[in-house]
Amino acid sequence: MSLSDIPAFLVAIALLIAIHEWGHYRVARACGVKVLRFSIGFGRVLWRRVGRDGTEFTLSMLPLGGYVRMLDERDGPVAPHEREQAFNQRPLRQRAAIVAAGPAANWVLAVLLLAVVAWLGSEVPKAQLGTPPAGSLAERAGVRAGDLVRSVSSDGQAWEDVQALPDLMAAVVQAQALGESLHLSVSDANGHGSRSLKLDTDRLAGRAPDAHLFNDIGFAPLAEPLIRQVLPGGAGESAGLQVDDRVLAIDGRSVPDAGFLRDAIRRARDGDQPRTMAWRVERAGQTVDLQVTPQLVDVDGRSVARLQIGVGAPPERVMVSYGFLDGLARGAQQSWDMAVTTVRLLGRMLIGEASVKNLSGPLTIADYAGQSAQAGLTPYLDFLAKISLSLAVLNLLPLPMLDGGHLMYHLFEGLSGRPVSEWWQRQLQRAGALILMLMMALALSNDVSRLAGWH
């Protein structure tokens, strides 16, 4: 995370909070409830304006939240002529609608943003896979260099088309997080033939999403075995490697792609000693033979063979876009799938079947905001959609202090015919505040660990 990430983060948070509170505000006004204040942020007021309906609109110093304060007899005296405009005097169905309108607004925004992303389209890597690392799930599933993934399925019955590599990786990450296996339908590089493979992502259930996890899964786009970077002073430079060298063979074995090359480098060791490899490369039309010895370096507590080079030509990319109706349908389907996955993942974390390291806090969100903003409009809109949906799901959790908790109060009132007592509300508020504080502390701890490279 850097200071350049902060503007993109603040814009995202301010927009999503404003949409959330606008949902509460608009439905409250439609139900005849008087809104006293619409605030973005907490603390000292930096800007204030009073609307025609008497609502005070404010922008406050701490932008990590917001609120809509409505006229309510439980908060203080209400003039007799305004009593009908008090929130607590509205019918139960209206009060529930006002509470649900905030998360609903964030959900609708997520659908629209994902639809816009689908309409705009983007150039993304093709779902054509390179040689998987030895021992990875992809290798054990039978993935071969050049395999083109056409569709995926969680049960081998209902299949979803894969347009490009991001679709495939999203399905893989979802299956791993939920502890499920994933079925793949693949063809050869030219789209001929078809075979089904089973990826045992359920074996990695509970693992935190880090570089080691993705290496153990073993998916990477097909790329030519070119040297694209040689770091000064590294083992690759010492061996005589140069940028744009094309690796033809290692120890007499042909090198089909960059995935094979990376795996050969990782395996170039005998116990705790690096092993020298015989490389044949093509350089400016000439064949050159080199003796290449990697260095063993410590990476997150693991000893790894490295050459300090970058390998792989850019993978083939395809343009993926959708028409108006298809884009809307994709936005709705994606938002539903992400919401279901989020809820199921939270449930698995609660019972210890998924790592709590999946929780992210403001530092990670700010980091992703900056990265997506630098990548362009489409990635930033996609980021906003996912954060908006996360905000909707989080607020619907049945925890006091959140919209979902208030909806539980209304559900109790609807079933029992009487509201939750003030004593019980106070106790539940305290419990809810404690749970939220623990979740925030855990998320922040994960952020610090992730940004510091501790996991």
UniProtKB/TrEMBL annotation:
Belongs to the peptidase M50B family. SUPFAM superfamilies: PDZ domain-like. GO terms for biological process: proteolysis. The chain crosses the membrane at residues 6-25, 96-120. Its cofactor is Zn(2+). PANTHER family: MEMBRANE METALLOPROTEASE ARASP2, CHLOROPLASTIC-RELATED, REGULATOR OF SIGMA-E PROTEASE RSEP. The keyword Hydrolase applies. It is a multi-pass membrane protein. This is Zinc metalloprotease. PROSITE patterns: PDZ. Its EC number is 3.4.24.-.
